[in-house]
Amino acid sequence: MAKIKFIEFSGKEHDVEIANGTSIMQAALDENVRGIVGDCGGSCSCATCHIYVDESWLDKIEVKSEMEEILLEEVCDPQDNSRLSCQIIVSDALDGMVLRVPEKQF
Amino acid sequence: MSESNATGEVYWDPYRPDINLDPYPYFKRLREQAPLYYNKEYDFYALSRFDDINKYFSDTTTFSSARSDIMEFIKEDDLEIPDGMFIWHDPPRHTSYRNIVTRVFTPRRMNELESKIRAYCARCLDPMIGETNFNFIDDFGAQLPGGVIGMLLGIPDEDRDIIRDRIDNSLRTESGKPMESSQSSYQGEGFEDYVEWRKNNPSNDLMTDLLNAEFTDPDGVKRKLTTEEVLIFINVIAGAGNETTSRLIGWTGKLLGDHPDQRRQIAKDLSLVPAAIEEILRCEPPGPSVARYVTKDVEIHGQIVPAGAVMQFILSSANRDESRFADGEKFNIHREGSPHITFGRGVHACLGAALARVEGRVGLEEMLKRFPDWELDMANAEMSASSTTRGWDSLPAFLR
């Protein structure tokens, strides 16, 4: 279980308790966090669940696959702290993580 | 909803023209009374609830695409699907081919096309300024998507209409009847000359990229696509990108014609356009249901769906499921909450979603800039029947 803060582009915040093993994309959709779309449902192929991870948490997340690297070059407004939220799986180690939703996914 | 439909046996099939005109009361009953529905007449199962489709649609080991995603084809005994027809492959074969085009249709690249799409819209719409009669399909929906795909592929403008008509006809069903699989062609006839020519005249277009792409094929061999595979890719892309987007433009005209108050809000504030396109895609998906081949017995809602069966995933029903979308039957561009499931789920989720969205968005903006007000001429509108899409073949309107 981890408590995670989502900050929408509008500034609206969601503090969500998420069970281990759940993807951040799924948790965001369940919580109606605006701006996460996730067309492909977490199969790392659509690039519509882009999210910014607060820097201090980046090394606690599993490293990117080759496909995620490719897709992250293709999102709107990519940054060094960009990730696809479907590829971030919640564990106790992520307790307290802060995530920011980009202005747009497409 | 007619009384007999409200009280009689729960029924749905994708062929009946009267159901196709307004399938939503039928879907509502499926969701409520037969969440796992079996149709005896055509021998298929159907899922209609959001949660079920969200859960099962991406399970490619149970619900396979390897016998296509069209019910009539899945049932063919001697169906042969050529290598490279990637929308009809399962992983890992699918992965190997789809990876070739992963970068092509991404949000960033599609948004880069925006100015070209805008210019193409102007070419379609400017000649209509001052006219009273406008047809959302003939004058716009039938023009824009083929133009954009042709632009991507590097096909000259004058040849695009011929290619579009050939593809659309290959997927059209006679009203009320299933599709004949023999009528469809996915081998890319009509593009051979361009591909041959493009081999010797490379350019900055998708056809050249496909000819040059190196990939690791399903047998682990690193190679380029064969000419046959390039033709199949082109045919998949052209086929998937034409009629569906034309339908999206038709539904945009219809839904905003039916809801002038919301249309006026959008015309006044174009920042509402992206949300409006998402709501149009939710309410009226151009591809309302998609079929899969069931590879093994699976229990759903206490009933066994046997291996070998056909499962229809009714995306357009899931999009109105009240347990997911409050007031799901209502068109509301200000809707908050869950995204729709129109582009599918899982590894087969629509590759061209970002392109469809940018065409829908730019198309609506350019429409509203010139024609903020219209009234539909429904007496002369025509809905079409197809095993893959649902929408308007003709949607005339009076411009105000």
UniProtKB/TrEMBL annotation, chain A:
Claim: Membrane is one of the keywords in the record: no
Pfam (any one): Fer2
Domain of life: Bacteria
PROSITE patterns recorded: 2FE2S_FER_2, ADX
Positions of the 2Fe-2S ferredoxin-type domain: 2-105
Segments crossing the lipid bilayer: none
Cofactor(s) the record lists: [2Fe-2S] cluster
Keyword Iron-sulfur: yes
Keywords attached to this entry: 2Fe-2S, Iron, Iron-sulfur, Metal-binding
InterPro entries: 2Fe-2S_ferredoxin-type, Adrenodoxin-like, Adrenodoxin_Fe-S_BS
Entry similarity comment: Belongs to the adrenodoxin/putidaredoxin family.
Protein name per its UniProtKB record: 2Fe-2S iron-sulfur cluster binding domain-containing protein
Organism: Zhongshania aquimaris
TrEMBL record, chain B:
InterPro entries associated with the record: Cyt_P450, Cyt_P450_CS
Alphabetically ordered keywords of this record: Heme, Iron, Metal-binding, Monooxygenase, Oxidoreductase
Keyword Metal-binding applies: yes
PROSITE patterns, alphabetized: CYTOCHROME_P450
Superkingdom of origin organism: Bacteria
Family note: Belongs to the cytochrome P450 family.
Protein name: Cytochrome P450
Record organism: Zhongshania aquimaris
